[in-house]
Amino acid sequence: MDTIIILDYGSQYSQLIARKVRENHVYCELLPWDASADKVSAYHPKGFILSGSPYSVYDPGAPTLPDYILQSGLPVLGICYGMHLLTHALQGKVAPSGEREYGLAQFECAEDSVLFPSGSQQVWMSHGDRTEQPPEGFTVIGHSDNSPIAAIADAQRHYYGLQFHPEVHHTPGGKEILRRFAVDICGAKAEWTAESIIQQAVEKIRTQVGSSTVLSAVSGGVDSSVATALVQKAVGKQLTAVFVNHGLLRKDEPQQVEAALKGVLGINLVTVDAVDKFMGLLKGITNPEEKRRIIGATFIRVFEEHARQIGLPPFLVQGTIYPDVVESSAPDRSKAARIKTHHNVGGLPPDLGFKLVEPLRYLFKDEVRAVGEALGLPRQLVWRQPFPGPGLAVRCLGEITHERLERLRAADAIFTGELDHEGLLFSDQGGSAQAFAVLLPVRSVGVMGDQRTYDETIALRAVSTEDFMTADWMPLPHNLLARVSNRIVNEVAGVNRVVYDITSKPPSTIEWE
Ligand code: XMP
Fold first, then answer.
1. Atom 4 of ligand 1, nearest CA residue
2. What is the tens place of the pLDDT at every residue in 87-133?
3. Using one digit for the tens of pLDDT, what is the confidence trace for 420-447?
4. Residues with Cβ within 8 Å of residue 506, at least 6 apart in sequence
5. What residues have CB less than 8 Å from 93, skipping those under 6 apart?
6. The last residue of a domain, from among 159, 185, 211
7. Total number of domains constituting the chain
8. Quick check: CB of 498 below 6 Å from ligand 1?
9. Is 167 a catalytic residue?
10. What is the CATH number for 237?
11. φ, ψ at 390 (rounded to 5°)
């Protein structure tokens, strides 16, 4: 498949470049800037994009432009630091800007060029250095108020440089600029579609697995469901999926998982009812870390027991997605990767010697969802919000009992149901990235009818976020909050107070435990 290689110089936006290129249906790979020439050439790339970077080209030890890039004769697009690298390597001049330019700018382009039409467009700038003099053979094809040289081109050699970031949301025309580079300039075919992804994945799984049996652990989450559905499409009856119900799922969720995977897709699904076991072990536990530890360890034990019962298949499906792979290989973002591992309490037995089948390894979340829809999984499952491995345990603060879980489930269903009704539950429709109820072990005095009550509190949380590393609380409509509060207090026994969480992350986290 035609491939564009993006070299990652450590910009916080590098993954966005890859996402935007893929949104144009062109396949691309994000590789560390110092990946070996052999590794890069194995992709037979059609062109290169050089990302931004926290470095200046003059910093000691700053990452460099590998020789194979210019030797390849292929088109190159340098973004910000990438533009400076190109300029520097081809004997132009890069210098610190008088002031760091950060934020929105108006980009002007006098004549039509292959990258953008003439006229003015909003762009996002974030740079310290800038190109002061383009290398020989280049012309300036656009400017902004603070950047007289905001875009350069050498149309003969197909080298392009942009001072601004076409990959970010604040550059609305950026996706089209990347399409023009990848498709019009590099000649890459836009053939990366859900159907082609499925076709490739199916072939690859069949080659890897042959006639062996395969095991999958499904949680009801998007990634494990789509990965399992892909393997089902590839090897059908060779697959057994195990769904451990730990009793910490939301209202009706176990039934929804069964209906989608068994009912719609015909997957051979074994549901393990481990509710009593988990509840027994969690009795009296209130410490969040202790809850997580017990749930993680018990999950592994229960899963292993059932894997053995069905004869320990040699292959195990895992829903690893591309951002996990990229995070763990990018040196400058290793911190972000560590935050995630801390959360991986639903991890699977490391010592059973499974060979991993990872059909989503090259996909971004939006692509996983598109594949899920194309495979016929229900929208409700495909667009599900992320749900933590320890489930409602980390939203039921204090002791976990059947009664308190039911209380939390009922309140959560009211809140998410009302959000859905208003079109605010799915982030693709401008809704929240994550919204849920939390049950607090805080009792307060209330009055219902003529009766004094002394009951627990529900906190509502709804956030918007791109990456779950930082998040903003959502300013929900007051009448919606009023309706939700009213319904919870009236319909959920044991709750007499509802509060709305208005803290962002940081300093808070999204979950309460
Ligand atoms: P926090 O609460 O750290 O959460 O802001 C960030 C994102 O991670 C999810 N999360 C988890 N996911 N296992 C998971 O698979 C976990 O233990 C876990 N804890 C938090 C959380 O829902 C949010 O999307």
1. 510
2. 999 999 999 887 778 899 999 998 999 999 999 999 999 988 999 99
3. 999 999 887 789 999 999 999 999 999 9
4. 470
5. 87, 131, 132, 133
6. 185
7. 3
8. no
9. yes
10. 3.40.50.620
11. -75, 5
